[in-house]
Structures are given as structure tokens and as C-alpha cells.
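User: Show me sequence and structure for the first protein, then do the same for the second.

Assistant: Starting with the first protein.
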Amino acid sequence: MSTSLHLVYQYRQLAVKCERRGLNMAEVELLETIEALFSKRAPDGRRHSTREEVSMVAELRMGGRRDRVAIENVSLGGMVCHQARGADVGDTVEVVIDDDELCLSYRFKADVCWSQGGEGDDEDRSLGLRFCGSPLLLRHAPPDEGRALSDDGEEFDVNTVVDADCAAA
């Protein structure tokens, strides 16, 4: 999965925390470091946020609808996705990006700020999404294949324990 995505997640978490409660010095330094990584200087000396090109698949959720989309780029403020059906400018959506290898799921809330290409359910549509609110990072347990760890760190077979518990009942 993209390091850029994790940096955007961290940045969004810190930005929301800064608005609500403020940041400690270590968090301010981290925020500034991430901003520096995503910025470049224009000829006039001002900084501009860059978009990092990525190639990721995500799920775009709106209402009860779930569509697979291709993420083209991410920035500190949002992302661009393709093959986006059903969402219109002004809609609020949830973007779910799963990293199966690391058992992580990134969840971003975003507003659709522009649409380009086809209309409505056309698969050729591209959407510009602007992040809003605080993102979530969910950690999933890897496929356990019936194995688990006890409180003292011992590995055991879940099926045996369940069978023994049922037999005792």
C-alpha cells in the first residue's frame, strides 16, 4: 500500500485534532514535516500542495450504494478517483481503502467537489473528492485459521476450546 496514503491519514488526523484541541510540539513538527513532503515551491516562493500519483482500488460508499473505484492521486486535501458511478457534486461519500497485506482499512469521509466525464452511472466518470472530518484506520485480525492467543500469550486452537465449552454445557 502507498506510504503517501498513510501520510495523508496522519496529516488529516493531526489537522482535525489541531482544530479541536490543539497539538503538542511533537505533533506540530510531524504536521510540518508531512506538509513539507507534500509541497513544492512556486517561482514566487509560495508553497503549493502536490498530488501524489498512486494506483489503488477503493470502495466508494454513499447511502446503501458501494462502488469500486480507481484512485489516481492523493493530496493532503483530497483525491481523484475514476470509474465513479452514482455520486454527484455536493454529495458526501466514504472512501474505503483496504490493505489486505497489513490488515488495515483506511476510511476517509469526503465531499464530491467536481465531476468530469460521463453522467450519472457512466463508468468513465472521474470525481474530485475533498476530505472532511477525521479519517479512521481500522486494523483487522489476519485470517486466523482457527488459531488465537490466550491472555498469557499461548497459542491455542479456537475450535477445540469452543467444542470443549459446548461439551461442558
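Switching to the second protein now.
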Amino acid sequence: MRTLCWSVFLVPLALGCTGDGKSDLEKLKEECLSSCSNFITYVERCDFELGASTEGFCEDTCSEWNDLTAESECEDDYATFLDCSASVNWAGAECTEEGMVEKSMICADKQNAWMECVNDGVADDTGGTPEPEVDPDADDDGDGWTNSEEEAAGTNPDYVYSHPYAGGYNVGFCETPPETTGPTGYGTMGGDGTVYEWSPYQLGDVPENFTLLDQHGEMVDLYSFCGKHIVFAVGAGWCGPCRGVAETLQAEQDLYRDSNVQFIEIISGDNSNNPPDQAFLESWHTEYGFTDIPVLGLVAQDQSTWEAYSAHLSMLFDTDGYIPSVWQLDTTTTIVSADEGNSDPSSFLD
């Protein structure tokens, strides 16, 4: 049976010191029944034994009290104890000195009741609800890493996208996954007398999560870096300017790592414009001296129709049909720089 922790609202109450006090008891009974959460501490009789109060009386007559949760009872009782420790409006001011119940005893009673709640695990010793115990061997967010492994790595065991990577990336987390907008921009390019149009992301959009293979053979989520400022470049092995961007990325990552920034390289094709395999991603990683930058490979584009082709991730992050495409996302994964060739995050950081 759980311990009840009483919430006592201390108010001055002058009870008569003569007679049996029955009329006062009846009135108090009615008050208890009508307002169970505000119990009134009182001296049942002026010559009653030291420490008497309505606690037992109200417990017997106020059945509604038992419907209150243990948590609220303990929190109320803790607040009462703090108030009692500071100052008490003591009932029974007209009683004789011999019949007075000392406020220190009431404070002690309240403290004892509170500590019983603490010992029963109903509340913590700061007046709040205790944190649930975490099983270090469990995987609370179902991401394949135990709670203890995530704690050791500094990632969040309650956010499925936040977990360690072999590449040692600057992983972050958001309390809830971002609310995506879908691509709302307008892209266009011409060729062979034909104008091609599609809908890429633009400033203010929040992209959907994507998951791509990295140079270590792991699948990496964009949302693993939620809570960080993200800079990523989309390029290809056959693209000279793309390689020029790659040459600067690790130096920029080193400069801004402690400012909660993560740079990412996304490769759309190898030197022959074929979908990059892990070996090519590893070679890119090695050639440009990446230490904690993911090199992610895009899968092949569906070229059966323009609609299918333009829905590929490489087109969603391309506003003009040219690479490299450099994008920046803030800590909520909202796009703040859209294919502007700007890989410097300094103007977006606090």
C-alpha cells in the first residue's frame, strides 16, 4: 500500500478552549468533505495530547482525498513543509500554553511524511517527480546502440537519429524530428532547345531526412546532425570545380567544429559519372584528408522520365543544373543558403 502524503494548508483558526468542541468538529468535517485538497490543521481540543491535528480525522472522513495522485500529494506536502519551515500561521491562538501544539512538531511531521514519499520513489528530494531509471543495456530509441554506448559517445539515447558513427562525426539531436516543408523552389535549365523545369528546395524549406552510404560502409542520416549547423556540397568525381571545393572542406571543418558545425560531402557520380561505390567514397576521403567529414554517395538516377529524373536527390539540391551545389542548414535543418556557392558558415553562427 502506498504511503499517503498529506497536503496541509495552514491557516489561523481560533477554536474555543471550553466545551467538547463538537460543533467545531462538525464544521471541520464539512470543510474536509467539500475541499479535500485543503486540509486545515487544528487543535481538536485545547487540552488534547501534544501533536493532535485533523490529519487522522480528515483521513477517516474525506474519502475523496484517496483519489488524488501520490505525486500531487507529495508535491503539495513538500511545498507545505517549506512554508512551515519558514513561518507558520498557527491555529489555537486562544488556547492555553499547556495545550498548544508546537509548530516544530508539525514541521517535523511534514518532513517525515515527505521523506516517506521520497523513500517510496514517489517524488525526489527537490519537490519534483523523479527521473525514471535508465537501463544502460537497453536501446530506448531503437537505433541499434545501447543507452550506455550513446552516453559514452555523447549522443542522445532518446533520439533515433542521434548515435555514434565510425567516422566520428559531429552528431547532434533535436527534441523532435524537424517538420518538413517539401521542396518549394523553382529550377530551370535549357538544352537542345528544350527548357527543363523542376521543383528544388529553396531558402526557408526544411528538407526531408535522407540516408546515404558513407566511406566507412555505414548509412548516414541527414537528421543525425539536427541541432548542428550543416554545410554540404554536392559534387562528382568528374567535376574539377567540385574537387576544388573538396580541398577546402576539412580546413573549414577544423575551424568551425567547436561552433557546432558539420560539413558533408555528397557525391553524385564517380570519375565516369557512374553511381559512386564505397571504394570511390573512401578514395575521396583519403585524397582530401577528411578526418570527420562524411562522404556520402548518391544512388543512380531513374532516367525513364523527366519527372522521375528531376525527383532525384541531386536535383532537389540543385537550382540551376550546375555543380558543385553548396547548401547550408541551420540547427533546425532549415535551409539558410541555397546553392549559392557559399561554404562559409560564419555569418549564420551566433
